[in-house]
Design goal:
The chain has 2 domains: 6-124 and 251-264, NAD(P)-binding Rossmann-like Domain (Rossmann fold, 3-Layer(aba) Sandwich), CATH 3.40.50; 128-239, Dihydrodipicolinate Reductase, domain 2 (2-Layer Sandwich). A hairpin with a 3-residue loop joins strand 10 (220-228) and strand 11. It has 10 helices and 11 strands. The strands form 2 sheets. It has a 6-stranded parallel beta sheet with strand order 3-2-1-4-5-6, with helices on both faces. It has a 5-stranded mixed beta sheet with strand order 8-9-7-10-11. Helix 8 runs antiparallel to helix 9 (192-200). The longest helix has 14 residues, at 251-264. The protein is an alpha/beta fold.
Length: 271
């Protein structure tokens, strides 16, 4: 007996959301793009022909009324309202703005109360499986060093509040050194990978994070060092930035698709 297809709703059709939408529309067995929430409906129709016809255009808070899983890809302000609308209905909430989850941690308790689930994709970070496995034992330390082209960091709240401009930068500059929680708060659209790493391992207050602006780079680079009682490992990944949003790597959309596929596939590899 075939299973009923999973209805997917996308909150946002930015660099990540649009790519996810197009790949589901191209055909992924077991997945249907049922609805999207966007600020510009006309633009959505131009970029996604089915929008407004087969694919409903609705308010973000209404996605969970008809969808089984809602993928969030929004600016920080509407995050909480959308999350609550999904979780309160006992549906599956997939946040891409993982740093916002740290700022709204009560949502985890709400998900338990409502029998909902919060599923964080791997995003632009390799090795989360290894970190999660190590966390079943004892992890002594986790350190992440992120290096990005200046344009991928310019305008972050942490920099704006301190009057730091990266325009004209001609040498690598460390712009942040602290915890993953503070880094996610100060760079909400830049280091969601650090928030995901912290949740997989020893938490946002124990995970150390450095952020560098490097004008010689063309790719977003992350180096993670983990020291645990079961293993010591180092991982490095260089993500190609999205054409429409240099703050986000192209692999984030593909990671989201892979996570969605894992919900319906007969074979799922990795934890």
């Amino acid at each position: 007996m075939s299973r009923e297809a999973l209805k997917v709703g996308l909150a946002g059709l930015g660099a990540v959301g649009l790519e996810v939408a197009r790949r589901i529309e191209a055909g992924i067995p077991g997945l249907i793009l049922a609805a999207v929430a966007v600020r510009d409906a006309d633009k959505a129709r131009r970029n996604l022909p089915g929008a407004g016809a087969r694919i409903a255009i609705v308010a973000a808070e209404a996605l969970a009324e008809t969808c089984d899983v809602v993928v969030e890809g929004l600016p920080p302000p509407p995050f909480r309202g959308v999350a609550i609308s999904v979780i309160a209905r006992g549906k599956l909430f997939m946040p891409l703005s993982v740093g916002q989850l740290l700022e709204n941690w009560d949502l985890v308790a709400l998900a338990k109360e409502k029998d909902a689930r919060i599923l964080v994709p791997t995003g632009g970070l390799i090795g989360l499986d290894a970190v999660r496995a190590a966390a079943e034992g004892v992890i002594r330390s986790v350190t992440m060093v992120t290096r990005k082209p200046p344009g991928g960091l310019e305008g972050a709240p942490y920099l704006v509040e301190r009057g730091i401009s990266l325009k004209g930068l001609n040498t690598a500059r460390k712009v942040f050194d602290g915890t993953a929680r503070d880094g996610a708060r100060g760079f909400p659209q830049n280091v969601n990978v650090a928030a995901a790493l912290s949740l997989a391992g020893i938490g946002p207050d124990a995970t150390r994070l450095e952020i560098w602006a490097d004008p010689e780079l063309e790719r977003n680079t992350h180096r993670i060092e983990v020291d645990a009682d079961t293993a010591r490992f180092t991982m490095t990944i260089e993500n190609v930035p999205s054409d429409d949003n240099p703050r986000t790597g192209r692999i984030v959309a593909l990671s989201t698709v892979a996570t969605l596929r894992g919900l319906v596939s007969e074979l799922k590899v990795g934890t």
